[in-house]
Amino acid sequence: MDSHVSMTTAHAIYMAAGFRTASAPSEFPGALKSIALFMELDLEQAGA
Question: Domain residue spans in the chain?
Answer without folding.
Answer: 2-46
